[in-house]
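User: Some background: our group keeps a shared notebook of sequences we're curious about, and every so often someone picks one and asks for a predicted structure to add to the entry. Today it's my turn. The entry only has the sequence so far, pasted here. Could you supply the structure so I can complete it?
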Amino acid sequence: MELNKSSNDQTIKNANIPYYNTQILGKSQDDAEYKTSVADIVVGDIIKGEVIDSINNLLKLVTESGEEISAKFQHTNNSLNIGDIASFTVQSIHNSVISLAFIAEDTDKQNPAVDKALMEANLSPTPKNIQIVEELLKNNLSINKETLQNLVKQSHVYKELSINELIIIHKNKMPFNEKTVNQIISYKNNSHQLINEFNSVKEELLNLVTSNNKVLYNETDKNNQLLNTEIDKDKQPLSLQIDNNEYISNLKEVNIEIIKVLLNENINNNNLTVDKSFIESMIQMDNEEFVKLIQSKDYNHILDKIINNRWAITPEDISKENLVSNKYNELVKDLDLIKKIVTKIDNNISKEIDNKIENINNNIDFIKLINNFFDYVQLPLNLEEEMAHADLYIYKNKTTTKEDDKKFRLLLHLEMPSLGDTNIHMTIDKSNIYTQFFIEDDFSRQLITKNLSLLKEALLNHGYSFIGEVKESYKPIDFFDNILNHNNSTNDITRYSFDIRA
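Assistant: Of course. Here's the predicted structure to add to the notebook entry:
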């Protein structure tokens, strides 16, 4: 990029600035005034910007003001990468061509091991690169040229990740790919709840199988649509659009298949009971009877209840063996079948469902990935009056003796519409349970305090002694800082089994 400068050369004599020099033109780097406008650049100015291109000895920067500068760059033993943010001094301007020299960070303030690692990896001591090395050292991880260059590369590819999150991926041998990064961002932003994702799939599915998005009746009959479950034989039957007959037949087949997949037990709702005999009666219905059924409120409520009971954990499920793993496996299997079934109706809508199902599968895969080094699980809950989300984190120290083998700590984070957010910290030592409740909502805090005696009695009936207290100082859970970086060492975490009923 050429600048309109005087043709007279402006050169700093003996301006070959050492790579680790921190004094620039009589000022420390911290005190230097950075030029933010290209128009008035002169020799000796300091420029700070992001590298957007680098070929041989040519460098292109975007300054903090958003302007672009192309310049010659005096190479050192280290290299700059696209995406690096760095500072430079203007060494010369000749025939409108700018020549820049890199300014290193103040090395007097940092560990000499950081400098050595960056030099051996042929990397510039930019703030980002320095932080990468410092985080590796902090986590007691090995440092070599290949590791550093790979982490620097990934930091430019996945700019949305913090350095800490990059180190977490590397430390725990997680793959650097879009699936992993998207899940990490989702967990960081607290938008990872499986219950919300399968509610989204459920909504799309209900709209599809009940044909809420498609007009099935003739235009003249729109205002006469019957939405009650019971068929009133005295009323004039609705006339269906003739060209929808094939669609309705496919719709009936899909509804029957989905109910067969999802129905765990007989479901009742007012005048409608869904069981094996109900499926047989659906097969015998003509198109008008079938459309009337699927667009009734009772049928919508029944399907909603069937899906909730199938995919979320109900109070009745608690006594079942291998509850969580079976529930996850059931969910993945169901979603795979549903993907195949819904293509019989509407390819466009089925693609939307496919995308939402993929999000659930990616979330479950991420949970499995986390469980390679930390015990964590999501618990989608189907309670009497509401759906709720729970995160369960379990901690146990590998250095415990055999006598302490049954002692561990866990954190249960609950998000319930009626009670608000709650963090329950538990220490379980054999049959003894000590619990602290941290509750966000004042009313819920009073409610839990009032009913602690009921919880104590219930646990006693299961063979557990219980001490509990309710705290006021609720703090949101930071998934990465508090969980994945727990004790800064995965050696402190081990696998174990525990009684989820407690």
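Suggested note for the entry: The longest strand covers residues 46-55. Confidence is low (pLDDT under 50) at residues 1-36, 218-242, 487-502.
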